[in-house]
Amino acid sequence: MELFKSIVNWCSQPAIYISLCTVGFVLLISRYRVLSRPSVLWGLAVGIALFFIVGAQDEDFLKIITKGDNMPIVIMIFAILATLGMALRQAAVNDMRLERGLPPTEAEDRGKVLVWPDLVYSEFICTILLSALFIAWSVAVEAPMEEPASGTRAPNPAKAPWYFLGLQEMLVYFDPWLAGVVFPGLIVVGLMVIPYIDTNPKGNGYYTLKERKFAISMFLFGFLVLWVALVILGTFLRGPNWNFFAPFDYWDPHKIEPLVNINLSELVWVKWIGTKLPDNILIREAPGIVIILAYFAITPALLAMKGMKRFYEEMGFARYSILVMLLLCMAALPIKMLLRWFINLKYLVAIPEWFFNI
Amino acid sequence: MGLMNKIAETQVWKSIFRHGYPSNPRNRALAALSNVFLHLHPVKAKKSGIRLSFTWCMGGITFFLFLLETLTGVLLMFYYRPTIEYAYNDVIALREHVPMGIMRELHRWGAHMMVLAVWLHMMRVFLTGSYKPPREFNWNIGVILLLLTLLLSFTGYLLPWDQLAIWAITVGSNMARAHPFIGHEGPGASLLAIGDVSLVTPASDIRFGLLAGRFVGAGALLRFYVLHCVALPLAAGLLMAIHFWRVRKDGGISGPM
Questions:
Q1: Residue A34 falls within a domain, yes or no?
Q2: How far apart are the first and last CA of chain A?
Q3: Interface contacts A/B by beta carbons within 8 Å
Q4: Considering only CB atoms, which chain B residues are within 8 Å of A135?
């Protein structure tokens, strides 16, 4: 039990946890035919359930997972496993059929049925089942209600509603103007432009992965790793002062975290060149500014020549530029994470005078 | 079916339903066509499209939860006053004075699950490529509905007026103060000034507009209440009507061409 706890605790450190999620994601995309077998899916479901049951023997862990507003996240884990499993299973079957020159299974029963009764009937059953489920849940568990609001006594940690905890976790790596405003805005814009930049005519109306590997990988990486995994991290593994606490740790509000993060300008001017920071803000931050400009100006051109050449030719300049800009913004989060973990980088560009930190 | 046929021939039945009891194809088609609620559906649907393994019923579950939230929400509004004097006590009274009172529980768990159902619905739509032509525009309506769902949940989170509520909204709305140009701690805010007088201050920026004050207080409570109970549900209802209508017009639930 102690060994189990220490292994879990070690694995859930943010850097390890996010890396493991990424490895899991790569496996998911590359080995989806094996992973979506019903036996594997059931195994995973039982494994996760066992993890929660065994983990719940620990008081600190039990306290976190049974907190009223945290229950949706436990449900989310199983719901995503079930739905994604079903989707990939059907994609695997369809891809095998497509390889043999057969149409996807969805094309097999091409027939139409009358909505009354065939669809209305299942909607009705679904409504009854859901009503029963929600009534049972509501009788069993009381909605959370804490002490009356007080504007002067802040709880520690103060957390946003659970579905925004991925954004709050992003605050570790980016300032609020990026994590709270620009990136959420880009998520919405990015989602909205998807139908207009995805020019691949295949995979319209049936499950497949092989025919749309790039589109599906990008979407699922954003959703599963950069959104869902961060929601879980922000809910279960972040305690007082937004410090990291492993699942079996006590949430000690006095935990001390050394502040060792350093800005790129300090790294370049003080550590590498060995002078003091220049007084002129723009010269001081020139290294970071150059890197950011190069990231957004040169990378798209480089990718258009090599790596994503096919995209550029098929999509045209406008669509390609929008796609690459959005991908670069999305990649900014993992990149910043890596920089933080490996060289303790705080900001690439740090101009607190203008509230402009990147 | 003798009795049913008799009822179906009465003047009352005929005045409500313009067709017989739906047990033959013609009446089944008419049942969907001539009913304002059922005609959200087409008369016929693809067999492959209505399989549970294809849609997971997630869009339907989202709509069900919206109706559940509307119903329980209206009931809650009878007991709840959106002022800082009463809000907290009204919610406590709901628990202590209403026998078998589970409306707030239904409302809260339903809200959480609605957020999840919307995410899973979007994942399904993405994985089946259902946003591709001719459904691009409907995907966009869907993205706005996702946003409205999150906002509905976020505004509702404040209403119990407990510690959980006020601080979650404080954390969330603090983001707004870093909004570029129009948040007082955002990059570029200091550029918006006339001479020495800054236009973007804690008492004039976007966060102030959202909260009706510098802090989450009485103004914010009323503002969130109105948004939560009137403005956002109306907007969501309107967009849902368009969303469902477009599903029909764009060829029903997606399927292979």
A1: yes
A2: 43
A3: 275
A4: 102, 106
Is A43 a domain residue?
yes
pLDDT at residue A312, as a whole number = 93
A81 and A177 assigned to the same domain:
yes
Portion 261-290 of A in contact with B at CB < 8 A? none
Residue A327 belongs to what domain range? 264-357
Task: Indicate the DSSP class of residue A102.
Answer: P
One-letter identity of residue A270: V
Interface test with B, best of A81, A84, A119 (most B CBs within 10 A): A119
B202's tokens: 């804690």
Residues 219-238 of B with CB under 8 A from A: none
Which residues of chain B carry a pLDDT beneath 70? Answer: 1
If asked whether residues A216 and A341 sit together in one domain, one would say: no
Would the pLDDT of A307 be above 80? yes
> Of A79, A116, A131, which is closest to B22 when you measure between CB atoms?
A116
pLDDT at A97 over 80: yes
Query: In degrees rounded to 5, what are phi and psi of residue A213?
Result: -55, -45
Within-domain flag for A251? no
The amino acid at residue A178 is: L
Q: What is the pLDDT of residues A4-25, one digit of tens each?
A: 999 999 999 999 999 999 999 9
Residue of B45, B110, B255 with shortest CB distance to A113: B45
Assess whether A337 and A218 both reside in one domain: no
Residue A187 has, within 13 A of its CA and on its CB side, a CA count of 19
- How many angstroms away from the CA of B137 is the closest CA of chain A? 8
Q: Chain A interface, mutation test: which of B167, B170, B253, most A Cβ atoms within 10 Å?
A: B167
pLDDT band at A289 (very low <50, low <70, confident <90, very high): very high
Enumerate the β-bridge partners of residue A148: B162
From the list B115, B188, B257, the residue facing A163 with the nearest CB is B115
- Choosing from A242, A277, A304, the residue where a domain stops is A242
Q: Determine contact: A36 vs chain B, CB below 8 A.
A: no
**Domain range list for chain B:** 55-249
Answer CATH for B55-249 from 1.20.810.10, 1.10.287.1490, 1.10.10.10, 1.20.1530.20: 1.20.810.10
Q: Could you give the angle at the alpha carbon of A19 between the alpha carbons of A345 and A84, nearest 5°?
A: 135
The predicted pLDDT at position B1 comes to 61
**What is the three-class DSSP state of A112?**
strand
Number of domains in chain A: 2
Q: Does one domain contain both A291 and A209?
A: no
ipTM of the complex: 0.95
Mean pLDDT, residues A88-101 taken together: 96
Cis peptide before B82 (omega within 30 of 0): no
Taking only residues 44 to 73 of chain A, the set having a beta carbon closer than 8 angstroms to any beta carbon of chain B reads: 68-69, 71-72
Judge whether A280 and A351 are in contact, CB under 8 Å. no
- Tell which of A187, A208, A242 closes a domain: A242
B64-78, pLDDT tens digit by residue? 999 999 999 999 999
Does A207 map to a domain?
Answer: yes
pTM of the shown model: 0.95
Pick among B139, B169, B171 to test the A interface (most A CBs inside 10 A): B171
